[in-house]
Structures are given as C-alpha cells and as structure tokens.
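Schema walkthrough. Field components (list of strings):
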Amino acid sequence: MTHIMKRTAAKMADGRELVYFDERELVHNGYDRRELPPRPAAPELRHDDLTDEWIAIAAQRQTRTFLPPADQCPLCPSTPDRATEIPDDYDVAVFENRFPSYPRCEVVCFTSDHQASFATLSPDRVATVLEVLADRTAELSMMDGVAQVFCFENRGVEIGVTLHHPHGQIYGYPFVPPRTRTVLAATRRHLEATGRNLFADLLAGAGDRVVLQNEHLTAFVPYAARWPFEVFVAPNRQLPDLTALSDVERDSFAPLYLDLLGRLDRLFDAPLPYISGWHQAPVRADRDLAYLHLQLFSIRRAAGKLKYLAGSESAMGAFVNDVVPEEAAQLIRDAGR
Amino acid sequence: MTHIMKRTAAKMADGRELVYFDERELVHNGYDRRELPPRPAAPELRHDDLTDEWIAIAAQRQTRTFLPPADQCPLCPSTPDRATEIPDDYDVAVFENRFPSYPRCEVVCFTSDHQASFATLSPDRVATVLEVLADRTAELSMMDGVAQVFCFENRGVEIGVTLHHPHGQIYGYPFVPPRTRTVLAATRRHLEATGRNLFADLLAGAGDRVVLQNEHLTAFVPYAARWPFEVFVAPNRQLPDLTALSDVERDSFAPLYLDLLGRLDRLFDAPLPYISGWHQAPVRADRDLAYLHLQLFSIRRAAGKLKYLAGSESAMGAFVNDVVPEEAAQLIRDAGR
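Field assembly_structure (string):
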C-alpha cells in the first residue's frame, strides 16, 4: 500500500531544497519570500589520525535556533503573519538543514502539528514517514560524495533536542561512519568463519530478549546492550536499506513501532528521551553484508536519573550498562496495555 | 621531589582495600566499624559481537549513592557521629569502589576538604595526586586480569557526577578498551609507514593549537578535536604510563595543569564541566607504541549550552564539533590571568 499521494519539490529563499510528501490533497503554491542570509560554508572535515575517524568542524552551527517557543517554531507551516522554513501546510515535509553538520543534511517534519510526537502519529502516517525515508535514502544515495545515509530522530531535551516540533534528521555522510565500518568488519569475519550473516544470527538467538514480533519484523533487546533501554527493530529477512523494504514490511512496521514507543513512554510514566536511527548499508560498498535495522536507545536509567557518558564511555569507549538486558526486555513487555 | 610522606594500607568493613597517602604526619588508627552488606557480585562482561566490544552489565550500580547533601558525603573523613567510607582524616585516600563497573575500580579522594575542587588544590597536592595515580597504576598492573589502568576525573553534574566531593576514579579494565585499541592500531601503521611515533608527530605539529608549554610538558588542542573544548597534556618525550614520569616531569605538571584548569573555568566565568583522563599503555602489550597523555574535554559549547552526544555521535560514532580547534586554543590562551 502506498501512502504518499503526491510529492512536490520546491526551493527555499536561499536555494535549499524543500519536498512535500502529501497524504491529503494539499495545494503547494506558497513561496518562500524571506530575506535569508547566504548559506554558510560547508563544514570542514578533519581526519583524526589517532582514531582514524573523520570529525566535522561545523562552527556555523553555534548560532542555530535553540529551543524557540511554540509561536516561533521554524518547522510549523508559515502563516500570513510569520514565515517559517515551510511556506504551506503539509503532511510530511523534508528540507535541507540550514545548519548542516555534513555537506548534505536534511530535516524531516513528521507532521504539521507542533504538539504531536512520533508516538502519537497514526499508523498510516508512520508508514508515510517510512516511505519518505526510503525516498530520501534513494535520493541522497545518488548524490556525489554521499557514502552513507543515516535517518534518525532525537527525542527529548535530555538528549539535546533544540526544536520541539516532531522531526527527524537525515545525514548524508561523505564517509562510512565508525559504527558501520566496525559492524561490517565483524560481519565479514563472521561470514568467513560461519558462512552466515552475523545480525541474522543475533536475531535468531534473541530468545527472551524479544519484546515484540510479527510476521515481518522483530523488536529485541541486544545481548550486550550498552544503554539502559536499547531495542533493535529489524526485518525478519536480510535487507540492505529502507529502499528494499516491501510494502507489507513497511505497513507492518507502523503498529509494531507505535506499540514499542507506547511501552517505552509507560516505563517511567513520562515521555522517554531517546535516539532512534536506521542502520543501513553504505551506498556503494558491502551492501551484501549489511542487515538493515533500527536502533532505539534511551539514556534514562531510572525515574529521575539519566545515564551519562562519562570517563569510561566518552574517553575510552568502554560502556557500562546499569540494566540487565533480559530485565529491560521484561520491563518493556510488561509495559503493554 | 617526593610528596608522599607515608602510605598506610587498611581494610574496610566489607573487606575492601583502603590506602592513605599522607603529606602530613597523620595517625591512622581509625577502624571501619560499620555493618555493611556483603559486596555485590562482580559485574558481568558481555561481548557485543556487532562492534567487537566488551560491555559491563553492572546492575548493582543502580542503587549507588546519588548526589547526597554535604553532611552525608561518603568521601569526607568519618566523625564521631557518622561513619563514612574513610575512618580517618587524610590528605589523599584511595579505596575500592563499592559499586564497581569492572572487577577492580577505585575511588581516589584528592583532599578531605569537601568544598575544594581539583583546580583549588595546591601544586604540592597535585604532584601528590600524580604520585598516587602512579602508585595505583603500578599496583593494579600487577593484579590478575587487569589489562589496562585508566585514571580519570569526571567533574560537574552536567556530565553525571553523583558525588560532589573532589575525587577521581581508577578503572582496572579486564580488556584493552576500544579507544586504546584503535589508537594503538593507528600508531602501529604510522610507525611502519614512517618509522616515527604518531602521537609524537601530532605533538610536534601542534603549532598554533598549543595552549601551554614548559620544558617537560605541552598542552595542546588536537587538530581534529571532537569536543568544543578538548586539550591533550603530554610529556615532551614518549613514555608508556604514569609510573615512567620522572620527578621533575611530575613536579612540572602541577603548575601547568592548574593554570589550564583556571583558564577553563574562566572561559564561561563558571566551573567548567569536564572529563579528564590519562591514556596509558596496556599493562602487557604495545608498551613501546603507547605515548602517555592526559585528555581533558568539556561538553560545554557556549554559556548555558551543552554539547550532547545525539544520533550521529551516539548511534554512528561520527562526531560533529561546533568549535574550531584553533579558535578554542586561542580562547584558552586568552583566558590567562
């Protein structure tokens, strides 16, 4: 089932791209009449020789919009009195980030309703968002210099959200990021040693760490979870990225993921701060090794207490998790209505 | 110059080790008469096959002491009315952590003065602390199952400090942590390609990123800093760990580091939250490759604003830094009195 009725491309006042993805019959004749300053220089990429990693130096981000009140939200549709980033009403809208961390960064607005959250979207809208992410993955994959596409949502001021309007982000990395590189190396070693896919084996062995499952998808807490609450959501077959999901897989994601988000918010009877991102194959390498999965994790370890990345995690990369993964899985299962 | 006059080992009520390191003539006849519960089981180590990393599952840490008021501080010396972790007055005291993340974790109290901070210690005390860290590095290196010793300080509730009393921590990792492993691999490649030590080359090329320097030590912002304010402090010659520092190197560290901490606190006219840790060689491997250095970094990116590790950093390992390293170095240099 296809949820997007219409896809409309537009340009913003400073030349950035804006794309509307409509479920409803909406008219897009709005025009971005703002006087915007020229777009900032692209961030500088520096190679850290010690860790063999690329660091983006994005000084122009220091001036980015920081927790504006609702009546100054730049992600709400424009009104006659106030021009925002988006001229017209919309269902889902994607535009190039004005303060990019990498040469191509996009913002995806899940709804024009400022007060909503991902957890309150309708199943149809969730499926639409997934179609949009697949569209952006395909588009960014065709761009020069994009090596990997990462679609993610940061939720909650506790993890640094600077805009309350429900939105996600899409990064087109000009390199294959460290986690992907590491996971693909381990996957290659496992394949050579066993003939099997590593992630598929981990999924098959999830056992009492499975929290939700349907015919097409499984949500489970990883065996060596590094966050107090961490869940993988993966298709039951190996796929490289979101563009490979079938319609039925995409449609079956919506109810499962909404169920999961509802449980997470009930864990502490409060909106759970989380990071949720889709791990996809690199654009031009190792597409046969990668296994598409969503990774969602929270820094909340107890009511009123957060997990901080202090010395061991931030300086050494060695994680300490205060919650036993099997117990986290049980808590999430028990948080069903 | 040796700063420790006396080293006194003691046992705590539940069998944990406690060591006093005194500059003054202090008497240690205090006895830990508390009724303490049995020590919790050692944390479980789980291997994350996807990232080839060891995760410590330390569920008993959930009940650890959390931001107690000053009159209930467990790191102050005991009084007739209240037994703390430390029976006697002390200059510097080290004891085994009651809530360890790894089989051997220690707490090092820099002073018995609850209201102090590292930045307010005397130069003599800083040198004493460095001697203590060398002592602990030597001791833990001799223990079965300790592969690497990491000495660090977390400062500020913004990065998750749960006790205000000025203290650091010492972890005896049962494995070589990810950052060390990665850095040593890059160092080996550089040595094979050039015949030179990688860190020594980075130090030699620090140029306008040097913030402080004396005959024995250099403090500089790394070229590809991943944090808004990040400084390496390293001896001017290659050493594997703190036990190899000469007396004169140790003594020259104190004024330089105190100068640095003072500048950092003046950046935003407020105590800067930071993580500061000593990167040392593994206990039994690659001691000829490693180059001892302290890494200090802050998550403060501007007055009232913190750098959060959101989707890109936490899920992908790809860092975005909002401050240009050369500008950070200039700001720190300008923050001299």
